[in-house]
Amino acid sequence: MPVLAYILGVPVPTAIAVALWSYLWSGLVAVRLYARHGSVPWRPALWLCLAAAPAAYLGALAVTVVPGRVLEALIATILVLASLNALRQPRVSRGATRPLGTPMLTALGGATGFAAALTGAGGALILVPLLVALGEPVLASIGLGQVIQLPIAAVATLANLWQGRIDLLLGSVLALALSLGIVAGVPLAHKLPQAVLRRLLALTMLAAGAAIAGRLLLNAA
Fold it and tell me: In whole angstroms, what separates CA 119 from the centre of its chain?
């Protein structure tokens, strides 16, 4: 979404709608591949998705009333905070202890659904660093991030289609490109040391967040 809005010049509401449309189709590819590697814990995924779907609808509706500059600031904040979370020394994995409970999964799903639909940041971008910070295994966290983006993208896309905000051609080209990247990236994610994967994720998000924040400061000057 930042590339669409801040490099290609697509209006922010349209960029959000296009990004969510592309996540719907590329997400199907990602979920299939992560599930094939056994990296999707399905019970937590169910609770996350049940909470994310209605929250995503509210987030998609909120796009029409939230000013573009506020959206930009929110996106930058999410990226920076998520990157700092990912750079932190991870807690001991919860995989060997008890899993996250239903109330926590529901809260995470609702917050992720609303924020992802509002900003177009993608469910994985918001959820994965939160799960890692809570001590969940990295690959399982990424798998859950891929799953949660499906109901978010589907529900938000319905609202965006109703509002006429989606450029279907651009979104479909983006979905194809993302899918090709996912096909190449999933095997690599399962081969890289997880500490390296976490740092790469964090540095990418930090750079994107800093670029957006810098753009806002320059425009305000």
Answer: 9
